[in-house]
Amino acid sequence: MSVISVLLAAIAPGVALLAYFYLKDRYETEPIHLVGKMFLFGILLVFPVMVLQRAFVHGFGDDPFVFSFLISSGVEEFLKWFLIYFLVFRHGKFDEPYDGIVYSVAVSLGFATLENVFYAFLNSASISTLLLRAFLPVSGHAMFGVMMGYHLGKAKFNPKQRNRQLIYSLILPIFWHGVFDYVLLSAKTYWIWIMLPLMAFLWGRSLWNVNRANAKSPLRVLRRDEQVEM
Description:
It contains eight helices and no strands. The chain is mainly alpha-helical. Helix 5 (127-157) runs antiparallel to helix 6. The longest helix is centred in the middle third of the chain and has 31 residues, at 127-157. The N and C termini lie far apart (57 Å). Its EC number is 3.4.-.-.
């Protein structure tokens, strides 16, 4: 299999999922250059994550529970959250709840895409293996991004619940990412029977979050008023 084929197979799932969630914005899609910038920041985030995770493994060992919930999900989701909160949470283009989902998914899938490229070349992965990874870790990162972005959107547009929603936007992705990793590390022979319902739940919940975020858009009311005036 050629280098180009492997590279395209590793990159395609992340780009396709980002396009899917980008186009789910019903009322006002975000600037492509800003979404692309967040995707790029997600790619660059892989390098400090690798350094920190290596340091934590030396300090805490490789116990599956500690690795799953602290070293893997804790480090990755916190740095994604930190990046989104300080770069786009107060940005003027973040003007409806669904925007939190778009930007969080962009960062998450940028991270997942480079991670997938590294895996493909370091493990000489086949196309079938990359397809499995598209269903599991790549789409998993997208689901964690949806969770994070949904609650960031609620935090921005519901000041009374801001602190609580900010906590949810960090804790929930860490928890579900940790569950995801722990299943893969611990259930060596029967992981698929746990992973299938887990992914079905995460996808179902994510689509519900997408619909709820769109339904809360202030632009929805503006569009409705414009139609009435016409």
